[in-house]
Design brief:
Rossmann fold; single chain; hydrolase; 2 domains; carboxylic ester hydrolase activity; alpha/beta; 564 residues; CarbesteraseB
Length: 564
């Protein structure tokens, strides 16, 4: 898993080789109830002007007694706030060149980008972006999530920093450190939008939340949080859901105490939650990061299938709780925010795992101990039941050894960690709200994906669709890439922004989209958009294996489920 995260970071570093910077600095002032903000003019890759406001505080810095606490309302400021640069990111688990020297606990800031001169007389749809990174990494910085492409589609984009890793998701499972602080940061950002976006020309009644990977899982968690009701009217979840096994942590208390003992070996395992909180508040943030970075991990406990060490949890019921009910039952029984949902995945999400240095070792280990194939979410304890489930899962992909059939292993990782949960979420929620499903199958140069590839496995890996939505390294010129890449960029932007504008990704026929009309998912008729060089409507994604996963869960898995 650590290799998986490393590969994702390297992917973001090499995606674009042709980079230019165009900034025209001018005073653009906006006054909100908290104070006056100075932004700046920028230009999209086609020379279209937009306005940028970066690093606007939306909550008090979570320092001292506010570490491991819900975000608090921001204080007003005097004078003019310079919002022309973005220099702070929340503490990461595994940083890269983009975060060197920028990590800070004082990190609760957001950005606003608008294609029109800010005016309360405008009424543009708002797209609220939540970054991914496995709840361990990520930041709302321009060099990672440049809005330049989306600015050409006449929407306002808001991107928000939220606490990650232990700072955002440590929990003792009680009222001392209930957890989910990163999700609560996002929610505070959404409340800020409701209060302030009108001053930038946005319509607070037309907010769409969207994210990829852990950002998509966060989107799904907002669908389940009563505190997020009314803060948005639509949602887009790319390559993640609250049903993803990696997006939920059952053993949160165990990892909280492991963190403390990793910092100080004399910290006692029988200490109270209050003792733990006081201790963790007393140590430097950098120490928490350093210990988290070397957290014990073995290949028998893969975080992609078992849950990241610090991830969302179900909290005890209390006034500020973000989530108090298991995810599967909430979605299944219609206790999710009933807003239109666009959800999907890449063809072979965990093809990226092949770049993990431990990949071949992991395949050998699975062949020696097939119980690793059985997720914690199956809640099996009897050795015979575990063996039967492992055999059933293994036979879905190969009758031989995974070491000899790495493509089959890649398919297992992709389906177990991503596909089956994403498809199931769409299927369950389609009973209660409009759901549009897609599979991203386009392989172009812009993504930077040159393999390795494996027989029997797809070629489109986790995160490739992001490269057609965001301009990385501040400004990417598409004219050096194939026309098919440019077309894919234009198509995916139109689908995203039409969904934000009309609650329907194809409100009418369009030549750009080959005049398709994207149908909704129905519980008994699962149609979806196959996004490739051409756009095609198909039925039943991953049909060959998904129905068999359903059968395994129905016959072998202990109910009720939490993830899937």
């Amino acid at each position: 898993t650590r290799g998986f995260i490393f590969v994702m970071m390297k992917l973001t570093s090499v995606l674009f080789l042709t980079v230019h910077f165009i900034f025209v600095v001018a005073d653009i002032l906006v006054t909100i109830p908290d104070g006056t903000i100075r932004g700046r003019e920028e230009y999209s890759q086609r020379g279209i002007k937009f306005f940028s406001f970066q690093q606007i505080p939306f909550a008090k810095p979570p320092l001292g007694e506010l570490r491991f606490k819900e975000p608090q309302p921001v204080d007003k400021w005097e004078g003019v706030l310079n919002a022309t640069t973005n220099t702070k990111v929340c503490y990461q688990t595994y940083g890269d060149d983009r975060t060197v020297g920028l990590e800070n606990e004082d990190c609760l800031y957001l950005n606003v980008f608008t294609p029109r001169y800010p005016s309360s007389t405008n009424s543009l749809p708002v797209m609220f972006e939540i970054y991914g990174g496995g709840f361990m990494n990520g930041a709302a910085t321009l060099d990672t999530f440049g809005p330049h492409y989306l600015m050409e589609n006449d929407v306002i984009v808001v991107s928000v920093n939220y606490r990650v890793a232990a700072f955002g998701f440590l929990s003792t499972g009680d009222m001392v450190i209930p957890g989910n602080y990163g999700l609560k940061d996002q929610q505070m950002g959404l409340k800020w939008v409701q209060k302030n976006i009108k001053y930038f020309g946005g319509d607070p009644k037309k907010v769409t939340i969207f994210g990829e990977s852990a950002g998509a899982s966060s989107v799904a968690y907002h669908l389940l949080s009563k505190g997020s009701q009314g803060l948005f009217r639509a949602a887009i979840a790319a390559s993640g859901t609250a049903l993803s096994p990696w997006a939920y942590q059952r053993d949160h208390k165990e990892y909280a105490y492991k963190l403390a003992s990793g910092i100080d070996e004399n910290f006692k395992a029988n200490s109270t939650s209050e003792d733990l909180l006081n201790f963790l508040r007393s140590v430097p943030a950098s120490k928490i990061k350093d210990v988290t970075r070397i957290f014990p991990e073995d290949l028998h406990n893969d975080q992609i299938t078992e849950g990241f060490f610090f991830a969302p949890v179900v909290e005890p019921a209390h006034e500020n709780a973000f989530l108090t009910e298991k995810m599967y039952s909430a979605i299944e029984n219609g206790r999710a925010n009933r807003v239109p949902l666009m959800i999907g995945m890449c063809e072979e999400e965990l093809l990226i795992k092949a770049n993990d240095p431990s990949f071949s070792q992991y395949l050998k280990l699975i062949d020696e101990d097939q119980s690793i194939l059985v997720n914690k979410n199956m809640r099996l304890t009897d050795e015979k039941d575990i063996t039967n489930a492992a055999n059933a899962i293994h036979s879905l992909y190969t009758n031989g050894r995974f070491e000899d059939h790495p493509g089959a292993a890649i398919r297992f990782f992709s389906d177990s960690g991503f596909s089956k949960g994403i498809i199931r979420h769409a299927q369950l929620q389609s009973k209660f709200s409009d759901v549009y499903f897609y599979q991203f199958n386009y392989h172009g140069r812009l993504s930077g994906n040159t393999g390795p590839f494996f027989e029997g496995a797809g070629k489109i890996r986790h995160g490739e669709d992001l490269t057609y939505i965001w301009a990385w390294d501040n400004q990417t010129y598409l004219n050096s890439f194939p026309q098919e890449d440019v077309l894919t960029n234009e198509r995916i932007r139109q689908l995203y922004t039409d969904f934000a504008k009309h609650l329907n990704p194809t409100p009418s026929e369009s030549e750009l989209l080959e005049n398709i009309i994207w149908p909704k998912v129905k519980p008994d008729d699962f149609q979806y958009l196959d996004f490739n060089n051409t756009l095609t409507i198909k039925s039943n994604p991953k049909a060959d294996v998904y129905s068999k996963w359903l059968d395994i869960y129905e016959k072998m898995v202990v109910k009720p489920y939490d993830t899937f």
